[in-house]
Amino acid sequence: MDAFAVAIAAGIALGTVSGRQTFRLAFHFGLFQFLMPVIGYLAGMTVERYIRGYDHWLAFALLGYIGGKMVLEGIRGGEEEGNGGKDPTRGMSLVLLSVATSIDALAVGISLGVLHSEGIVYPGIVIGIVAAIFTAAGLHLGKRLGTVFGRRMEVVGGLVLIVIGLKILFDHLRG
Predict the structure, then answer these.
(1) Which alpha helices (H) appear in 44-151, and where do they start and end?
(2) Is 79's pLDDT higher than 60?
(3) CA 9 from centroid of its chain's CA atoms
(4) Which residue in 25, 67, 94, 125 is a FRET match for 133, CA 20 to 30 A apart?
(5) Tens digit of pLDDT for each residue in 126-173?
(6) Between 132 and 118, whose confidence is greater?
(7) How far is Cα of residue 104 from the mean position of the Cα atoms in its chain?
(8) How many CA atoms lie within 13 A of 68 on its CB side?
(9) Residue 72: Cβ within 10 Å count
(10) How far apart are the first and last CA of the chain?
(11) Cα four-point dihedral sign 11, 16, 19, 24
(12) Are 160 and 9 in contact (CB under 8 A)?
């Protein structure tokens, strides 16, 4: 659901979404959602104590940064819709969003590794495929919302990313 919400925000920021952008975002989100639990599982008890202490802070910082940039770009609104700002389906924005939306999957994988649970590849594949489908759907839903509501939706999309980051942070701090 985090990938879906972030994809909606990305669709809003883009305004016009191409097939190539849809593929890039869906592929990367799906790939990271698959890889993170597998990597976490393999890491198991070895790195659990190191990652558990700051994974939520990392996700919060990444989503807060990208969300904050979207809010500022939406408020400034100096550039034409669909052409403004950076493309979140390219470069470091793509990597940061992929990591931020899948960091909790890493924690799940670590937990399964610690418990010595059997088989992580099949669940990882299912998680990756579902994330890719939800990402593509969210990206196009965001495009439609951005078309209907304009630049205001970029501000809303940025705020959604910040709220997701805060939710991840508070969930980990509470638990």
Answers:
(1) 45-51, 55-76, 91-114, 121-149
(2) no
(3) 10
(4) 67
(5) 999 999 999 999 999 988 887 777 667 778 877 887 888 888 788 878
(6) 132
(7) 10
(8) 8
(9) 13
(10) 20
(11) negative
(12) yes
Number of H helices and E strands in the chain, helices first, is 7, 0
What does the DSSP 8-state code read for residue 90? S
For residue 14, what are its two tokens? 């883009």
What are the boundaries of each domain within the chain?
2-174
Determine phi and psi for 86, rounding to 5 degrees: -85, 150
Phi, psi of 59 (to 5 degrees): -60, -45
- What's CA 77's distance to the chain center, in Å? 24
Report the distance separating Cα 121 and Cα 68, nearest Å. 35
Q: What is the pTM of this model?
A: 0.70
